């Protein structure tokens, strides 16, 4: 059972050094107990105390690192059942499946789709992360060759999937430098698969149907010294799989049932032959509570909405999405181009900048720091007022770039125009449209 804040405090050095970022050791202990601090932040913890505090500082669901070619993704590490309670931390990895029954052309096509699926959204690059190499015929040589092709032709994280340890071993030898995820360990092959994962120091997927069998399997594997597991309850229907995801997450968080304290993998690709239903199943598991979800085909029409769903779910609701304040040049503006201003709420910026770009009118867009608030919210909070906008215009350097002395403000902030004219007597203030879709016509009519 996890230690309380007072129990943790009794084990600390009690120096109140503040080097951990907290004003006192007691405050640090309370944060540690609630999962809001890392034990490594304290420089005075002895090895003995570190061992005692390991349980208190570890999240109830173990974070497992999955290696891509030039990046590392983390699954698990979650601390709440519902996003509004705190936040979800580590987004579901979206994977495409390759099988040894596929032709070379189909394999190349799937890898090509993976490489091409990159979408820019509110300043973030959205893309799937993993390719699963799935053995269906026990051909170790073909399995290894397919794994090698994935490693050579993509930057994907790789999962080697077979219930035959000798096949997984062949694939591992071909791509061991990419640190693949190994799978699957079952009750029948747990000894061999566990030994292979332990020797290679790699994470392992454990699969069993039924909660008792799954708990028994993960307990056996952790008893072998394995720490990084991903669990698969093996359900092949949506109802059972969804129930499994909820039960496993709740068991890990509420009673802190250690055998279920690992991220999960879900396989919509094995639940239906209907591409639309598969997409809906995947959407369900991104919300509840898959660490990895595997698709049979990486179709852009399916993957893109799943990426957007994931972005929305795994964006911290307590932190607004913001972009850097400054001057943004759209359509190559010159000294006589119009000047517009808005807030640094990311969605506002991308909508407004997109409409300006679509208008083909060269424009200087000033982005003021409003702590990520939208126009109306920033205006109501006093962060987008005549005074603040004027101060930003004066200090941002736009007067050195343009002869224009006309500034366009959002229609929803029309109330600041009088104050802004007083603060910027040399500037003419124009009130722009209230809706972004009207921006192109507005600019063309200037």
> Which term fits the overall shape?
globular
Radius of gyration: 27 Å
Mean pLDDT metric = 93
Output the structural class: alpha/beta
Question: What distance lies between the first and last C-alpha atoms, to the nearest angstrom?
Answer: 68 Å
Model description:
The chain has 446 residues and is an alpha/beta fold. It has three domains: 5-57, 3-methyladenine DNA Glycosylase II, Chain A, domain 3; 64-313, TIM Barrel (Alpha-Beta Barrel), CATH 3.20.20; 326-444, Rossmann fold, CATH 3.40.50. 39% of the residues lie in helices and 17% in strands. The chain is built from 16 helices and 17 strands. The strands form four sheets. Strands 10-9-8-7-6-3-12-11 form an eight-stranded parallel beta sheet. The model has no long low-confidence stretch (mean pLDDT 93).
Write the layout of secondary structure elements.
Elements: H1 5-11, H2 25-33, H3 47-57, E1 64-67, E2 72-75, E3 93-99, H4 104-116, E4 119-121, E5 124-126, E6 130-134, H5 140-153, E7 157-161, H6 165-175, E8 181-185, H7 190-200, E9 204-207, H8 211-223, E10 229-232, H9 238-253, E11 265-266, H10 275-287, E12 292-295, H11 300-313, E13 326-330, E14 339-343, H12 346-359, E15 363-368, H13 375-380, H14 386-396, E16 406-409, H15 417-423, E17 428-431, H16 439-444
Parallel strand pairs: 3-6, 3-12, 6-7, 7-8, 8-9, 9-10, 11-12, 14-15, 14-16, 16-17
Antiparallel strand pairs: 1-2, 4-5, 13-15
Helix pairs in contact: 1-2, 5-6, 10-11, 14-15
Top keywords for this entry?
five-stranded mixed β-sheet, about 450 residues, 17 strands, alpha/beta, about 15% strand, 3-methyladenine DNA Glycosylase II, Chain A, domain 3, Rossmann fold, globular, eight-stranded parallel β-sheet, single chain
């Amino acid at each position: 059972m996890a230690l309380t804040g007072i129990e943790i405090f009794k084990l600390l050095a009690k120096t109140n050094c503040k080097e951990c970022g907290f004003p006192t050791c007691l405050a640090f202990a309370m944060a540690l107990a609630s999962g809001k601090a890392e034990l490594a932040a304290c420089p005075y913890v002895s090895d003995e105390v570190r061992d005692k505090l390991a349980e208190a500082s570890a999240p109830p669901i173990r974070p497992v690192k999955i290696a891509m070619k030039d990046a590392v993704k983390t699954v698990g590490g979650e601390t709440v059942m519902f996003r509004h309670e705190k936040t979800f931390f580590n987004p579901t990895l979206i994977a495409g499946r390759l099988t040894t029954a596929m032709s070379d052309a189909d394999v190349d096509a799937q890898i090509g789709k993976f490489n091409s699926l990159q979408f820019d959204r509110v300043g973030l690059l959205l893309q799937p992360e993993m390719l699963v190499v799935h053995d269906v015929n026990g051909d170790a040589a073909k399995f290894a060759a397919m794994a090698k092709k994935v490693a050579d032709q993509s930057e994907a994280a790789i999962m080697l999937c077979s219930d035959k340890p000798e096949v997984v071993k062949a694939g591992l030898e071909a791509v061991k430098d990419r640190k693949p995820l190994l799978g699957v360990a079952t009750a029948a092959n747990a000894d061999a698969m566990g030994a292979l994962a332990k020797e290679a120091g790699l994470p392992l997927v454990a699969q069993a149907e039924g909660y008792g069998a799954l708990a028994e399997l993960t307990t056996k594997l952790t008893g072998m010294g394995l720490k990084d597991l991903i669990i698969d309850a093996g359900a092949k229907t949506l109802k059972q799989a969804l129930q499994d995801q909820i039960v496993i997450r709740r068991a890990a968080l509420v009673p802190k049932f250690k055998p279920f304290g690992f991220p999960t993998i879900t396989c919509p690709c094995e639940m239906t032959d209907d591409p639309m239903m598969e997409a809906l199943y995947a959407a369900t598991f991104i919300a509840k509570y898959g660490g990895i979800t595997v698709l049979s085909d990486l179709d852009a029409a399916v993957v893109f909405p799943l990426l957007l769903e994931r972005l929305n779910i795994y964006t911290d609701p307590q932190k607004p999405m913001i972009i850097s304040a400054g001057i943004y040049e759209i359509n190559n503006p010159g000294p006589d181009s119009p000047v517009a201003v808005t807030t640094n709420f990311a969605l506002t910026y991308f909508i407004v900048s997109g409409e300006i770009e679509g208008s083909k009118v060269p424009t200087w867009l000033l982005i003021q720091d409003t702590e990520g608030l939208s126009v109306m919210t920033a205006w109501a909070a006093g962060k987008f007022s005549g005074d603040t906008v004027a101060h930003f215009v004066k200090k941002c350097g736009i007067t050195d770039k343009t002869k224009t002395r006309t500034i366009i403000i959002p229609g929803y902030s029309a109330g600041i125009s009088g104050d802004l004219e007083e603060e910027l007597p040399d500037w003419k203030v124009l009130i722009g449209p209230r809706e972004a879709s009207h921006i192109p016509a507005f600019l063309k009519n200037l």
